Amino acid sequence: MKLIVVKNSDEMSKLAAEKMLAVIKEKPNATIGLATGGTPKGVYAELRKDHQENGTSYGQIKTVNLDEYVGLSPDDPNSYHYYMNEEFLSHINIKEENIHLPNGIADDLQTECKRYEEIISSLGGIDLQLLGIGHNGHIGFNEPGTSFESRTHLVHLTEETIQANSRYFDSIDDVPTKALTMGIKTILESNEIILVANGKEKAKAIKFLVEDPIDELVPASALRSHANVTIIVDEAAASLLQ
Ligand code: F6R
Does ipTM surpass 0.90 in this model? Predict the structure, then answer.
């Protein structure tokens, strides 16, 4: 696992975008795994800017997102479908049929999880997966205690995650309590993984990830068993590291 500490979140975003662009340029039909949340917004801003200024093409790129809330339709402003379009996908020349997110309003959520795994396999797996990290060490919506053998599944969000995500909603009562997420095994099968984190509120999670033993109670610690992971953090998120 490679740890890179940069000065601030701007530098974090620039470096993560640079690494993503290297993969996109080397393999123009790559499958890129995407994350939502506050942390990667700057990364998507960098990628948008690059697309505008340098014309990097996404004509053959496929994307698979980590997760989606259950019960929110793609046109709900709090859905991850909506977020991805706003922040990134509607700004680049990606083909609609190459964009994949779990469907949180599928009639049968178990079948939807299977379908999503099949999509990822049919794309030949994920070339590069971008991740954020939750305060409790979650990746995707894999909460503490999730099996490292897990594949795309339905999760009941913890109080802590609902609380943390309520900042994006009008009221905490509006935050969905369930989500569909790629499993830890699905994530670990990616060829390359980049995890970004900034701010002091992520410092504990980064300490767990980097210094604690590998344990299912810290989902992100599974990344330590992967051969090609880069963790990019700002000084505040690195502030508790020894
Ligand atoms: C989002 C996701 C989550 C977030 C994490 C951090 O698709 O899978 O694991 O990466 O909750 O969220 P922020 O960046 O909002 O602090």
Answer: yes
pLDDT tens-digit profile of 73-90? 999 999 999 999 999 999
**pLDDT digit string, tens, across residues 1-48:** 999 999 999 999 999 999 999 999 999 999 999 999 999 999 999 999
> Atom 8 of ligand 1 has which residue's CA nearest to it?
140
Q: Whose Cα sits closest to atom 12 in ligand 1? A: 37
Q: Please name each of the domains of the chain with its CATH number.
A: 2-234 (3.40.50.1360)
Amino acid at residue number 31: T
Strand segments, DSSP code E, in 17-169 are 31-34, 62-65, 67-69, 99-100, 128-131, 153-156
**178 and 71 Cβ atoms separated by less than 8 Å:** yes
Pick the closest to residue 194 from 16, 13, 14 (CA basis). 16
Handedness of CA 233, 206, 155, 185 (dihedral sign): positive
Q: Tell me which residues are annotated as active site.
A: 67, 136, 138, 143
Expressed in angstroms and rounded, the spacing between residue 58 Cα and the centre of ligand 1 is 24
